[in-house]
Amino acid sequence: MLVELNKNVLIGTVGYHLLSNHSVGPILLPQIQSISWNGSVTVEEMNWGPIAIVQYFQTLEKPFDKVIFLVAIERPERKIGDISVFQWMGHLPSEKQIQACVGDAATGVISVENLLVIGEHFKIWPKEVFLVDVEPGAEQAGEHLTAEVDAKIPEILRILEDLGQKPTIVLETKKLRGDTLFEESL
Amino acid sequence: MCFKNLPIAFDEEGNAYLKEGLADPYEHKVVDLGEEQEVLKGLLERNGFIRNIDYDPVTRVAGALAFHSVVDLEKKKVLSTNSMATLFRGYEVILKGRDPRDAAYISSRACGVCGGVHATTAALAIEMALEIKPPPLGIVMRNILLAIEYMYDHPLHLFLLAGPDYSEELVRETNPELIDKAATTKAKNKDVHGYDTVLDIMKDLNPLKGKLYLEALTMTRVAREAYVLIGGKYPHPQSVVPGGLSVTVNASMLNEVYSRLIKFFDYSQKVTGIWDDVFDFFLESNPEYAKCGIRPATMMDTGVWDRPDHYDAKFENCDTWGEARWSTPGVLVDGEVVTTKLTELNAGMEEFVEHSYYEKWDGHRFKEDPNGMPLSPNHPWNKETIPKPGKQSWKDRYSWDTAPTWDRMPMEAGAYTRMYMTAKAQKAPASKFLENTGTSMKIHVPKHLLPEKTLEWKIPEHWNAFERNRARAYCIPYSAMVAMENWMMAMDLIKNGDTKVSVPYEIPKKGTHIGFGAWGAGRGFLTHHLIIENGLIENYQIITPSTLNAAPRTPWGEMGPYEEAVLNTPILEKFDKPEDYKGIDILRAIRSFDPCMPCTTHIMAKDSDHMVTREVTTCACGVE
Lengths: 186, 624
Hints:
Helix content of chain B: 25-40%
Order of helices and strands of chain A: EHEHEEHHEHHEH
Structural class of chain B: alpha+beta
Distance between the termini of chain A: 30 Å
Number of strands of chain A: 6
Largest interface: A-B, 35 and 42 residues
CATH architecture of chain B: Orthogonal Bundle
Strand content of chain A: 15-25%
Largest sheet of chain A: 6 strands, mixed
Radius of gyration of chain A: 15 Å
Largest sheet of chain B: 3 strands, antiparallel
Strand order of the largest sheet of chain B: 3-4-5
Number of helices of chain B: 20
Strand order of the largest sheet of chain A: 2-1-3-5-4-6
Number of strands of chain B: 19
Oligomer: heterodimer
Helix content of chain A: 25-40%
Radius of gyration of chain B: 24 Å
Distance between the termini of chain B: 42 Å
């Protein structure tokens, strides 16, 4: 995959706080913010509700060319700390499912699936939307990452830097479709 | 004499005392729920038309709220209900031992919608504990901020969450007989909303693409823009602090707020007109709809929006400044006002954990409030949060929610309660925009693009799902007019050079200081009870509206409000086979409370990576 320079890039973290590995985004946010990004990279927590994020994108004078989310979702056949990079392909589930996502979003549920689906429905996403997705293992409470994920921090940050600002880089990405998200999460 | 069940009496001077001669004044019955379950088990085994219906979760993403009911599909009756909060979040535990100033920022995260309300309530708790009186501009700006939050919240609920339940798409699936009727029923409020028939409205309530759905999204944005001008950001404002607000307020900022606020003048007229038309149509088409979600109007509210000339944060004066609020605090029992005093409201509160995943705590540290009113060992100032995950059992424990009561009665909370209470009590001070008649609230909405209009919300005969949502619609102009009145006060204060928005304060390093914050979220009141010990939080207890509404049974077997409302709901949905049954009537009943479970159920312990497991399966299949 070829990554171009000087794009207007958003790196967002999505996930509940205080859930150990499931909170990899919020936990790493200060480190990501402290990276010397070039001027076209914005780093923000993106937990403040898909509807609000839709409205935020709609007000942008200069839209983002690329959006990267750091998330942690339990997926089958991965070991804790495994990192997958997905490219969002933008297929939408049924309208009933989209409305259910809106319902969750409006009641404060933090979920990258909701964010992707609702954002897609309201057509806010640029062509390039990536998920840097770390396997968190079973949900548990905690202010800290487990050793497995802690050891992967340099790799996570490197992937974000590469995706965010390197002129050319080849990354292995998987495709993520909205209409399969729900099957995966079953 | 407001207490009928708690052992609190009053002398001739009105001083409260604990009734004498009772061996254990706060004892209560604990009933065995097993008998009821055995009867249901027998029914299920004998009758094929009796089904377990699980709404699990009520939202899509697993977690917050699950609802279990047993329904007789032949008799179209609900036989049994259980509301389950399926997550423990434990903000009470997180906050223990912290600097009290952390409370506003941390507790704000208890909810992804009403963070500003939690932050404000935390600030109020500290203000009471330390007797910090904010300056007038700080108080009125806080009022505006939180009125705006409701103007975001109510349209969102009415059109994005509850609205689809009344949309053409949904009604065509569940009650097709209503569609033809809606097509020929003229809308009574066409002059304000422009729709000719009820079916025209229902079509624009369709999710994702209906014009009313999309317009509500736009209006939530308008409210949010106004909100961030004061709060800095949404949903977790950065400017709410004990002692006022940390934001610069000037005429320019107020004008920016006003330019958003006036958009709600016309929108208020439109929204109330829309929902009056839709709900009147349902209730007139089939009077049985009046039983959907019905329960007695037994509710409580702490009031909200302080008067700058009354509020001094002191507990000893809280009855006075409480009754001066733009919404009157108090308790309604079956529609009748039993108190409007914050001290009585506070003293009557208890939390029970017999059917929840918590251990009962020992001790009764605060036997009286600072004024000498007796307090139960189950009062939030005496409560401790001790999580105890376990097996789910309808006979025993089935929820991470507690069972809060007032005077030993389960209470409902809602935005509508503050309007009901205020209209009925007639204690709110005179207002240019609001008039309380004892049976209604008249809201004088100024002109914007539409001419000025007086909207009147009337206390309904039956308290049901439709009336909850209708009242919520009227809470939009109510909130907008409170915001407007405070906006005018803020302008006057600025003109007079009274621009201070906060006062400095210090957390005392020694001694015990107690307070409670009482404010309102979009879905009802919430309280934060705080004990500061030697400069740190010794105990922190949060009761949210959903804590009350989604409560499990009390120890003596009374149902929580969701459970009771659903049990009373008739099955009016049309279906040929049980497999086609969608449960719309039950969902309407639950949604009319505007459930917000991220508020109710809380997660984890500070400095502990100990796993708080979700050992309670959210699936009701296979449980006892």
